Amino acid sequence: MTTPRQDERQTGSAKGDAHDIIISGAGYVGLAVAVAIKQAAPGLSILMVDAAPEGVWRRDTRASAIAAAGVRMLQTLGAWEAIAPLAQPMTEMIVTDSRAADPVRPVFLTFDGDVKPGEPFAHMVPNLAMTTALRMICETLGIEIREGVAVSGFSRAGGMTRLETAMGETLTCRLAIACDGVKSTLRDKAGIRSHRFDYDQAGIVGTVYHERPHEGRAEEHFLPAGPFAILPLAPDEKGNRSSIVWVETRKDAERLCKEDPFVFEAELEMRFGHRLGPIRFEGAPKAYPLGLTLVRDFVIDGLALAGDAAHGIHPIAGQGLNLGLKDAAALAEVLVDAHRLGQDIGSLAVLERYQQWRRFDTVRMGITTDMLTRLFSNDIGPLRALRTFGLGLVDRMPRLKDYFIGQASGLSKDGPKLLAGEMI
User: Fold this and answer.
1) 314-347 pLDDT tens trace
2) Of 165, 169, 159, which Cα lies nearest the Cα of 189?
3) Radius of gyration of the chain (CA)
4) I want to staple 56 with a disulfide (CB 3.0 to 4.6 A). Which of 52, 189, 284, 298 is the partner?
5) CATH 3.30.565.10 is right for the domain spanning 18-65+127-196+292-380
6) More confidently predicted of 407 and 114
7) What does the pLDDT look like over 249-304, one tens digit per residue?
């Protein structure tokens, strides 16, 4: 039995191909988990494997909304300094409810962008900037990342987890963490059941260049086929730009992506509007199918799920990535605390603490986004009247608006330390 604060100079169980922790998936959630654990417990050996071929992550041109709590976490991990020059604060958000062809879209709800003076409730961050910053820290900490390594099998015996790879290699660890996306192979190989509901919708995500500056304002237009969000990005050498999340029925989204660019941009302009002047879509559009995915268990003996491997929600509230960062912060804190107490980080008793911390929040967010999707993705008269009344009511209640801003920021009194800007 080790002492309550294990000697951080130890090298854990890392000998040959044995490690304390193996993380499957080197996206931002997996990287955040690795950095958070290694900074707080340098004696734990961590290996990351990712199925994508080497360098594919560098092609990610998307951007994500990072809530204030996530920014605090990235600041604490030392990643924000490199990200900040490319990040765009959200200074204001407006919400409308209309039809795509309506010449005027009345604003029913507005939010100021600060959770406190000088701290916006969210930033738009290029995925590549975030991934690059976290990978650089991994390199500094000595965390190995093996790309092009696909997990093909899972087993647990004698207090150790064994992962088989598609190349026939066996990797051994005390704990495996699945951060390999909503279609997680590791989750499925471990026999953890997931439940998915298909919305028959798809989201077109991309970057739009426009003539006039956005002034940091985000817009969400609730249209009958699904929400259309305009999210501000920092300008680059090509000019002013915003990210869009354009939700349509799956059939229409796939049709739009195959249309002639002129037709596609005409449809885009109808939804985007003319407030920012002439627009131009960057690159080739691509549609991503949307659904709600929840898992039966976040953990089993020797395995924990985090990020999209544990939950996949509709982008209507823009909280998918932020849920993943909450998972990363909570899991890291639970594991580091257990390690310092000399407990087995792969044991179900330890991992259950993480599950209890995160399960309710993710189920609640899944139900909330599901209800919002059903309420707003239609053109039913009585429902339109109900939601118009509801949005207007919230807009006239400052305390309720402050509550929603607080929820969107991800800040809470009982959240993980990293999300409050505190070291583990």
Assistant:
1) 998 788 899 999 999 999 999 999 999 999 999 9
2) 165
3) 22
4) 52
5) no
6) 114
7) 999 999 999 999 999 999 999 999 999 999 999 999 999 999 999 999 999 999 99
Pairwise CA distance, residues 231 & 370, whole Å: 21
User: C-alpha distances in angstroms, 335 versus 47, 175, 349, 404?
Assistant: 16, 10, 11, 31
Q: How far is CA 26 from CA 29, 31, 120, 141, 345, in A?
A: 8, 6, 28, 15, 21
pLDDT digits (tens, 9 = 90+) for 174-204: 999 999 999 999 999 999 999 999 999 999 9
pLDDT tens per residue across span 71-118? 999 999 999 999 999 999 998 888 887 766 665 565 667 777 678 888
Contact of 139 with 131, CB cutoff 8 Å: no
Question: The tokens 């088989």 sit on which residue?
Answer: 164
Residues 6+ apart with CB under 8 A from 398: none
Give domain limits for the chain.
18-65+127-196+292-380
Long-range contacts of 108-111, Cβ-Cβ distance < 8 Å, separation of 24 or more: 108/388, 108/391, 108/392, 108/395, 109/391, 109/392, 109/394, 109/395, 110/395, 111/401, 111/404, 111/405, 111/408
Structure tokens at 80: 């924000």
Residues written for the chain: 424
Cα(74)–Cα(63) distance, integer angstroms: 16
Query: Do the beta carbons of residue 210 and residue 241 sit within 8 Å?
Result: yes
Instruction: Answer for the pair 131, 57: CB distance below 8 angstroms, yes or no.
Output: yes
